[in-house]
Design goal:
Chain lengths: 759, 138
């Protein structure tokens, strides 16, 4: 933190001298706490006032908007075509443009808006600190690189290139590009180490750093970066790709200035923000006033099973609204699923934009229009010592929360209101379900990264139709899952099952969520390889339904270890015995001598040998509405498409039909559904009677629990006798025990017990 | 005037009551939590999300763990419609998920026409009913 605390008993004059002295003699330019907590727009500058006074024709500003947006779309495609990282190839990137003050004004129409929304923080850092520092400065042709989320970012895999744009010596805007690069030299390959215990295990940590001068990459700094990661080729290529993409955008911006003048550009960048904020407030005023709450629970820290409360409330009145995450889990300092609050807010921004108002400009005003409340320090508003490398595991909960709360207010708004821009939709699957990998490739290159399957999440059901299967990542609607053949060309991995839709695992309802897909991964042709996964949601469903719709299921990771499936498949008859289906393979166990396991879906990096099988599912979307209202013919179609089983069709949807012909017995189905409705009434208890026995004063003693229970101000942390209770305003950070130490202590206790019995 | 709040709930602004949209059952005062007028059942999540893997062989089966995850199903007492499915931790107090400011709602709707039928934004057409003979298409 750069703000010195006040010293008591100093006169105002002495205090002023001391403040000035300290400002001049900064020991360390760490993240700026005040800057990182502030999601509001910067104050309109005199230069912006002047530009807006001169250029106030909305049609002209709209022309400028079109030109700038097409420039960013072009640069996005450039990166997609040239980028080396898997994330670059399949859409996990973005190009953004910022005001001179650093507010995100717009970004490319595809890709990860979240990246740009957090990128404004390092830009503001450059403006505040480096622009005034004689050893750094800001000049035309400079490019700053950054990946440390403590200065604004999601996690250390994401590298941004940020370049200031000068016109006649005046800073008129900033342009950036960000890619999920993956490998960053962390304690586990691939850039998202779940095993990291501190920020020093997370790998490369770039505070905003000038790597480009006069549009040329400084080779000494690039070499340092290449030495800091496992994939120097990727690091080299993507720094260049990001720089040239930004330079292309800058060329286009200059052509806008040439044609319309700098005032038009400056006026557009500022008005785009102010108009968006005004429109958000106008739309908020169309919604009913009220409070909507939606807590959710993650069921793992990615190192140990535990229930982690991730709270969320929307308080809306008139044209104002507050987003509150108070009552959420304390910070687990030595676990990787913490978030700096700038990141949390950027995920909320993305959720609001994707699920509620996708027609708005993709900029900072979408979140700056809201008030925000959190407890500090906590898991979603962590301090700068927290570990953050798998922040997405908890943050993805906040991508779908806007949909869960806004839709409860949005549904009632008349159809002709501007705020009803998209159908009400249940949650898209919200966990980073993919393989992170690392090792030596068949081309004898060391690498580490993640698979684009993270972009194959099933969409939530909509109020008027089913969700789409494996649509995209919940964080970016315009992203793809990649081509298996390309992956196998570069990496020593074979998918025995690549993208087979997972039966019975989406959220059921009047409309069902889209399915995710199964995959079976195996290493082949490598001397050293390993996998990691970062999903939670194996014990507690992660992806909720809406208005009576159910969540999607729970998802473990399944493994068959101690075998070589490729050798096994060579034996006569075995290919016919191999079920290309996770459930059948695990239940039938056809490969003799294999160790078959189904565990929490988050595993730290482990080495594998050729032919061992690792299996995960992309999750399905949440369901919408009562299952008994689903058209029986649509259930039959799902049976035909192998999306739901006969058991689910009969037992849950209560469809009576001929299992051979799938002909529905309409009358019998009606009777079965009527009977189920009566059964519900018979088994349901009046609310007040139910809560008398249901409500418990504290979380279950035997479950490690983190966060509030009934009262947002009372926070629990831990299990059994070691559980602590604290108030939200005096939240302590938590250090978790090493799971191996816990296991050893259990085993030692067991040994002592057995030895005692033997005496 | 009645305002359609969710798929199954509406508020009668004149009587200030929550009502079921399927059977017109009067659920309870609109200034209170709608859940208080519904029937609640603690549903074992394994009944909804079947154990796909053999529970005798595996601890994780694609089914939520009932010690960690419970489903509270809220039914309309009049018609048995499943109004809400709340996933929670066993013993956690039901969430007060929706509190509407009824006075503000009255002011808001004093300038609006009553909508008896809800139509999804951007698409007034009914959901497409796929036909069986199209076969496997994904």
């Amino acid at each position: 933190m750069n703000t010195p605390e006040k010293v008591e008993n100093l006169s105002p004059a002495d205090q002023k001298i001391m403040d000035a002295f300290l400002e001049e003699h900064q020991l360390f330019f760490g993240p700026d706490f005040e800057q990182m907590q502030n999601h509001r727009l910067e104050i309109r500058t005199a230069r912006e006032e002047e530009a807006i006074a001169k250029i106030n024709d909305p049609h002209l500003l709209n022309q400028v908007r079109g030109r700038v947006q097409s420039a960013m779309a072009e640069s996005f495609r450039m990166i997609e075509q040239m980028g080396s990282a898997p994330g670059a190839k399949w859409g996990d990137l973005v190009v953004g443009i910022f005001t001179a003050s650093g507010d995100l004004s717009d970004c490319s129409p595809f890709g990860m808006t979240t990246f740009s929304a957090v990128c404004q923080y390092p830009i503001k850092f450059c403006n505040k600190y480096w622009s005034k520092d004689s050893t750094v400065g800001l000049r035309n042709g400079d490019g700053f690189i950054h990946n440390d989320p403590r200065y604004g970012g999601v996690h250390g895999t994401d590298q941004s290139m940020m370049m200031p744009v000068f016109h006649k010596g005046e800073l008129v805007c900033w342009v950036s590009s960000t890619i999920h690069e993956g490998e960053n030299g962390a304690c586990e390959p691939g850039g998202m180490p779940a095993r990291a215990e501190s920020k020093f295990d997370e790998g490369l940590k770039m505070s905003p750093l000038r790597i480009v001068e006069n549009y040329e990459i400084k080779r000494d700094i690039l070499t340092f970066l290449q030495n800091s990661v496992r994939d120097p080729k990727l690091q080299y290529e993507d720094v260049k790709v990001k720089m040239f993409a930004v330079m292309r955008t800058i060329d286009r911006v200059r052509s806008v200035i040439d044609e319309y003048g700098a005032d038009a550009l400056i006026a557009f960048l500022r008005k785009n923000l102010e108009d968006t904020e005004t429109e958000i407030r106008r739309r908020l005023s169309e919604l009913p006033d009220g409070i909507v709450r939606f807590p959710s629970w993650a069921d793992s820290s990615l190192r140990e099973p535990c229930l982690i409360k991730l709270n969320f409330e929307l308080h809306k009145k008139g044209d104002k609204a507050t987003l509150s995450i108070k009552g959420s889990s304390p910070q687990m300092s030595n676990r990787t699923i913490n978030n700096v609050v700038a990141s949390t807010k950027s995920f909320l921004l993305t959720g609001i934009m994707q699920q509620i108002w996708p027609d708005l400009p993709r900029n900072q005003a979408i979140i700056s229009a809201f008030d925000f409340e959190s407890d500090y320090p906590s898991m979603m508003d962590s301090d700068y010592d927290a570990t953050l490398s798998m922040s997405v595991s908890s943050a993805f909960h906040y991508l779908i929360k806007p949909g869960q709360v806004f839709n409860k207010l949005m549904y009632s708004v008349p159809l002709d209101a501007k705020s009803r821009i998209t159908p009400v939709v249940a949650a898209q699957y919200n966990q980073p379900a993919t393989f992170v990998y690392g090792g030596l490739t068949q081309h004898f290159e060391v690498t580490g990264n993640f698979c684009a399957d993270i972009n194959g999440a099933g969409q939530g059901a909509r109020e008027n139709r089913d969700g789409l299967h494996s649509l995209s990542g919940c964080f970016s609607f315009m992203s793809d899952t990649g081509e298996q053949e390309l992956l196998e060309e570069e990496l020593p991995m074979v998918r025995l099952v690549s993208q087979s839709l997972a039966k019975d695992r989406m959220g059921f309802g009047k409309f069902r969520g889209g399915a995710g897909y199964e995959q079976m991964m195996s290493a082949k042709g490598t001397e050293m390889w390993g996998f990691m996964t970062g999903q939670t949601g194996s014990s507690f469903s992660s992806c909720p339904g809406l208005f009576g719709g159910y969540s999607s299921s729970a998802y473990p990771i399944c493994r068959v270890k101690g075998i070589n499936v490729f050798e096994w498949l060579k034996k006569s008859g075995n290919p016919d015995r191999f079920p290309f289906d996770i459930v059948e393979l695990m239940n039938q166990q056809p490969i003799e001598g294999g160790r078959y396991t189904a565990d929490d879906a988050g595993i730290t990096f482990e080495l594998t040998t050729e032919g061992e099988i690792y299996m995960i599912c992309q999750g399905g979307g949440g369901g919408y509405g009562d299952v008994l209202e689903r058209d029986p013919e649509m259930v039959m179609q799902d049976v035909l498409e192998n999306l739901v089983s006969h058991e689910v069709a009969s037992n849950l949807f209560k469809v009576v039909y001929d299992k051979t012909t799938r002909r529905v017995d309409v009358e019998a189905t009606k009777q079965a559904r009527d009977a189920e409705r009566k059964a519900r009434i018979a088994r349901g208890k009046p609310f007040k009677e139910f809560v008398k026995t249901w409500n418990k004063p504290t979380p279950p003693e035997n479950i490690p629990y983190y966060g509030s229970w009934g009262d947002n101000n009372v926070i629990y942390a831990g299990v059994g006798a070691t559980r602590i209770t604290m108030t939200a305003d005096k939240m302590k950070t938590i250090m978790m025990l090493d799971p191996k130490d816990v296991k050893m202590a259990q085993l030692e206790a067991r040994i002592a017990e057995l030895e005692g019995k033997g005496k | 005037m009645k305002v359609l709040i969710t798929e199954y709930l509406r508020i009668d602004l004149d009587t200030e009551k929550w009502e079921c949209r399927n059977c017109n059952h009067v659920i309870g005062p609109a200034r209170e939590l709608y859940k208080e007028g519904l029937l609640v059942h603690h549903r074992d999540p394994r009944e909804i999300h079947p154990s796909l893997l053999d529970p005798k062989k595996y601890a994780k089966t694609f089914s939520p763990d009932p010690e960690w995850c419970a489903i509270l199903e809220y039914y309309c007492p009049g018609c048995g419609t499943l109004v809400e499915a709340e996933y929670t931790v066993p013993g956690h107090p039901p969430v007060r998920d929706l509190e509407i400011d009824v006075d503000a709602l009255k002011v808001q709707w004093s300038k609006r026409k009553e909508e008896k039928v809800h139509v999804a934004a951007g698409d007034g057409s009914p959901p497409p009913l796929r036909r069986q003979h199209h076969g496997h298409s994904h």
